[in-house]
Amino acid sequence: MTVNLGKIGIWRRADGLNPHLAAEVEELGYGAIWIGGSPPADLELAETLLNATSRIVVATGIVNVWTADAETVARSYQRLATTYPGRFLLGVGVGHPEATQEYHKPYDTLVSYLDELDRGGVAREDRMLAALGPKVLELARDRTVGAHPYLTTPEHTRQARGILGTGPLLAPEQKVVLETDPERAREIARPAVHTPYLQLSNYRKNLRRLGWTEEDIDGGGSDRLIDALAVHGDAATVARGVAAHLEAGADHVCIQALSSDDEPLPVYRALADAFFRSS
């Protein structure tokens, strides 16, 4: 049985997650907590968050195949799947060539990693791939429950759904800024988008595939690109921007809250009202 992510979840780097935040996010009505970055193979943080909650799904976004041994990951998955059935989703991916010295033949490495997860008993319906381009989206479709694209737009979601077909899960990440002043919103969003993402070749290639130009991508990102990658406005406006992914074919969207003080809970609270309690 596929885990139930709900329509909306949250994405946050591991060092910004704790049991208190997890419990409140669950209480607010979100369906999943995505552990951003490259959590280690022991998956201890996922276990801590699962233990602090009773319903919400915890997912990794993503375990890096270069730094987390597949055999260890499989054992950790078995521990979590046994203790918290139906509440853990293993997101895996190859990361970025700029960050990994050993980065070579990433597609073949990803296939081999999935083979090892198979041998370790990691159920297909409990694992997902970070996927941007057509080839890895097809692999996600054929070997996992679906795809978790990062730093994308609803247009990418539409294209990804066309590749995945109607069955697999599609769960993109979307950055959000709860700020009605466009200039102020861009001041908050641009550093988080530019460093490091607009400097990484896989994201640059994907944005060019979507029709963005080098001029849009360089120099910190054009205003138009920043606005697309980090939706801003009041809660209702941001909720509509997130819902655009659902309308384009996503099953679930995980929001990454950006703010000047790095305090996400006020954003989660405001958006929960817009997502779950609006008339």
Brief rundown of the structure:
With 279 residues, the chain is of the alpha/beta class. It has one domain (8-276): TIM Barrel (Alpha-Beta Barrel), CATH 3.20.20. Helices cover 45% and strands 17% of the residues.
Structure characterization notes:
The chain is of the alpha/beta class. It is built from twelve helices and eleven strands. It has a single domain (8-276), classed as Luciferase-like domain (TIM Barrel). Helix content is 45%, strand content 17%. The protein is globular, with a radius of gyration of 18 Å. The relative contact order is 0.14. The model has no long low-confidence stretch (mean pLDDT 95).
Key words describing this protein structure:
alpha/beta, two-stranded parallel sheet, 45% helix
How many strands in all?
A: 11
CATH architecture: Alpha-Beta Barrel
Largest sheet: 9 strands, parallel
Q: What is the assigned CATH homologous superfamily? A: Luciferase-like domain
- Parts with pLDDT < 50 across at least 5 consecutive residues: none
Question: N- to C-terminal separation?
Answer: 32 Å
| CATH fold title | TIM Barrel
Please count the helical segments. 12
Which helices and strands occur, and which strands form pairs?
Blueprint: E1 8-13, H1 19-28, E2 32-36, H2 44-51, E3 57-61, E4 63-64, H3 70-83, E5 88-93, H4 106-119, E6 127-129, H5 134-143, E7 146-147, H6 154-164, E8 169-170, E9 173-178, H7 182-194, H8 201-209, H9 214-217, H10 223-229, E10 230-233, H11 235-247, E11 253-258, H12 265-276
Parallel strand pairs: 1-2, 1-11, 2-3, 3-5, 4-5, 5-6, 7-8, 9-10, 9-11
Protein name: Putative F420-dependent oxidoreductase
GO molecular function: oxidoreductase activity, acting on paired donors, with incorporation or reduction of molecular oxygen
Pfam family, one: Bac_luciferase
